[in-house]
Amino acid sequence: MSVFLYSLTLLPPQAASVSVVGAFFGDKRQYIVMACGSWLRVYRPDLESGALEPVLNQNLFCSIRMVRAVRVPGTSKDALVVTSDAGTFTVLVHNAKLNQFRPTVCEPYGKSGVRRSVPGQYLAVDPKGRAAMTASVEKHKLSYVLNIDGDSKIVVSSPLESHAARRLVFALEALDVGYDNPLFATLEVDYAECDFNTSPATYAKTEKLLVYYELDLSLNVVVKRLSVPVPRDSAFLLPIPGGKDGPSGVLVGYTDYILYHKLSARPIQIPIPRSNATGTQPLHLTCGVVHKLKNAFFVLVQSSAGDVFKITFDVEDDVVVNIVLKYFATLPLAVCLNILKSGTLFLTADSGSHKYYRFEKLGDDDDAFAVVSSQWHPGSPPPQFAPVDPQNLELLYEIPTLHYVTSAYADEPTLKDSMKMHLTSGRGAESAVASIHNALEVMEIVRTPLPGRPINLWTTKVASADEFDKYIVISFSDATLILEVGETVEEIKDSGLILHASTILVQQMGLVGLVQVHEGGFRHIRGTNRQIDEWKPQHNVYVTRAVANSRQLVLALSNREIKYFEIDSNGLLREYTEKKTFGSAITALALPAAVKSNLLCVACDDSTLRIVSLKSEDMFDTLTMQGLSATASSLHIGPLGKPAEGSANLFLNVGLSSGVYLRTVMNQFTGEMTSTVSKVVGASRVKLVPLTIAEEHTILVLSSRTWLAHVSENRFEVNPLGYDTLDQAFPFSGEPCPDSQVGVSGEDLCIFSIENLTQKIQFDKVALHGSPRKLVRHPQLPVQYVSETDTQHGNRRSRLEAVDLNTKEVSEAVSLEIDERVLTVEPVEFLARPGEHYLAIGVAKHADALSTQFSDCFICVYVISEDGGLELVHRTRVEQPATAIRAFDGRILAGIGGTLRIYDIGKKQLLKKCELELRGFQQIVRIDHEGDRIAVADSVQSVCFLSYKSAINKFLAFSDDFIARHCTAMTMLDYDTAAGGDKFGNLWVLRPDQQASELVDKDEFGSLVKKEPKLQGASSKNECECHFYVQDIPMAVLRVKLQFAAREMLVWAGIQGTVGALVPLLSKKDYEFFLQLQKHIAAETMSSVGRNLLTYRGYYVPVRHVIDGDFCEQYLRLSQQKQQAVAQKLDRSVDDIVKRLTEIRLHNAF
């Protein structure tokens, strides 16, 4: 049976290649845009709190190569210029209606893919927004003139070529020359002579050149202005403001020095200072930023040691005569630095969290360490300094990230907790063990104890015009507590509400009035003089359920009748004489929050749901009826998200006693119910509470866990809250904390707020002391073990650290000798020593980065004590590095180079029991098994399937691969299936030949399996069931459940911090439906950058049996006309397509 998968991104990549700042949304506010893989991530700085609010995550479905911001003359907002592997020059402008960047220019210039001779690797935009240049690594450069047409739409000219054969480009920047012709600078190497003469002398004579290109706007031609030699190790360019803002020119960065260069001016050289902690390692500039002030400017540059320096220029007659370089701060190593007009600095981190700082000072202190170019002489030793924090920057906010991920594992989900994934994150000082789980962030404002456990809770105003709530009403089993809300919250006795009975409902009705419903009837307090009206049911009948809006009240009685009341023109609740008796007890009621609704929803304990009319001419007539899988315990009718104008539909939300939440589309005029989706939210009955968060309608779902149903990016989602389980909740608006919520957890009253509906994954990090490599967990204790490796002063040091999951404390468990490196870690048990837990570690001495060169290799075995400590048992020398270890039937499987072995524990060392050298394998990187079936993944030779025959103590390798996959992760899905990823960003699912698999199972003594190799490998070949390109290197592939009631699926983590899921489709029919949907969406929409989806997802190998779920979800963002067009082609309704897209994520992922 074939495997069909549906790919979803759970967490987009966080490793940014570039970031830019601009006013992209047309509201004059500056936004930060980061390019992360194929995603554009946009953040808006909050000037009051200092936080960065995510406003847009857009997948361009391409490999973004470079992004620049541009303000074309005549336009009112900034645009993005993007180059990608689509081979197009693209200008993106934000569309406020769609909240997406849409292309206004998409000019093809080369083949798709990332090629050294296709432009797009480098991109520079003229500071005045008149032109742009893009260059390839070799030969090609194209320049475009930017302009606007009569509709103020950005247009570009035909590209102007400035190609040069056998030229390598190392950097490209646009210089600031005011309104003179645009000028571009590049760092290039002409290797033409080396092509014909490969001698070392020819190579030594090859020069690196700083080349200036001028785009003549009048002649529409690009000319080379000047070419000057610069040091061979130059690799960094930073333009200096020109025109009226500065002297113009460019900074050139090379090893240990900075060079200022300008046309027709004398170059100025200045050294890069090194701190005392840097040692003797060479220093380079990694990034820089220029910021213009009113009558001045300054430059910030960062060295490869993380030190940030401020550079200022002494200018006379538009000529730089002196350069002053001052120590400014030491920050995490950055990819980009961006300064905003609000006086803040955004640091796009090379690893670890991206950081947002506020300038406290501009570093003008006279006592700060400084280097002056006029006082420094070439040949002098590089200046050194002792870094003292000058406190120029204050950290305001961090964007949590995961890159770089090297290892991961996952915990099983429970009824009260989602799947928690643990990953190694960052490197160096930014190293951490990160735990992520699906939850919305909740900020607790107040928590106070109550005199008992409430059974219900409301907040209410007294008058409809009140801005804030007046009372918090808390109902107990035999009494009601009233809290008055003012500057403080205090209990009161004179509200007019009944205190000696349990309350069923409290509702503000009419202009000024409150209704309190209890078992004995209701009390209506109306008018400013608090006039009280009472209503009581007949003898031996009591009220069981109630629902109300501002003008209507419906009561359900114990005799199964419904009573209907309505506010008349005098503000009195008038009872309608019509009655309706149901055949079973009423369990829940719902009214839309309209001024006057003509529909009422009634749920009964016979597991039915009815929509009845409230029109006077057909009062209580049943319009529609629907059966349920269990009794409904709570109902709500209302909008979700931001209601669409003119829509006739509302959403009927149903909570069942079985712990299931349903959302159904309901026509507000006819009551017709369609497109029902469901979600298991707990093991107890469900209660629904409507909330409005950030002007969006949402539903709080209370069960054994608390969830929030909401709309995010046009997609219906149900996400848990990262908070205590709530028994009761209600929206709350008080003067000290408007737009918040009040809830009851146990016997505590809590006031809290939910502010961010887009950040649905919560991070929890524990800092480490070194760069992590492998992460494992003790099989029983709440302890993690992390292997770390760092290079300090030329020596490599490795250690094992233990992380306590309860206390978050980190302690060093094992420190290895200098130049010993941990390659793999695995918790194991041995049958020979029952009841004891061990840690097996592969160690190599003096090993290079790929572990191909080494001086000695060991497998170290440590016994784990009861408190999680490690004690060395013995070290076993092996001839090649042990790069993979796996527990196997009370022994261990070890990958020693390209050889697979079984070891058992001995007194002085491990005892070799069985081995097999796998043909062509060089370095085994992953081992997994299901029973006696073993899958082995190699660093260059894909996956081989083996069977271990205990009767003869032999491995039988019976199936390997045609394709040489460079594996980075692998796991077995079942006895005959393995899934993994490779270093080129592919995910795949492999199966051995079915006949060979069945034959090897029957072959107990290895006599039936063919011994003849096929294509220099095993006797049969693997079949590729699935193949998909994800544009990140998978470092872990796990078989887990994301939710308690979900199916098992593949979850993978990439080195850039991407977390994705591959959900199994249950039938080929489902696969064909989504395949056709994917095809028609691509036909109806133009790619933002002109990239073809199939060629993108089949970057190296054509896509096989995998649906791009992220692309299918673009259907939810299409206009109604395009949605209808796609639905007609599929012969489906729009609601049916939306339901299927919603359910597959809702039931399996988040």
Automatic annotation (TrEMBL):
Q: Which residues form a coiled coil?
A: none
Q: Does the keyword Nucleus apply?
A: yes
Where does the UniProt annotation place the signal sequence? 1-17
What compartments host this protein?
Nucleus
List GO molecular-function terms, semicolon-separated: nucleic acid binding
One Gene Ontology cellular component term attached to this UniProt record is:
spliceosomal complex
> InterPro entries this protein is in?
Beta-prop_RSE1/DDB1/CPSF1_1st, Beta-prop_RSE1/DDB1/CPSF1_2nd, RSE1/DDB1/CFT1, RSE1/DDB1/CPSF1_C, WD40/YVTN_repeat-like_dom_sf, WD40_repeat_dom_sf
What's this protein's name? Answer: DNA damage-binding protein 1
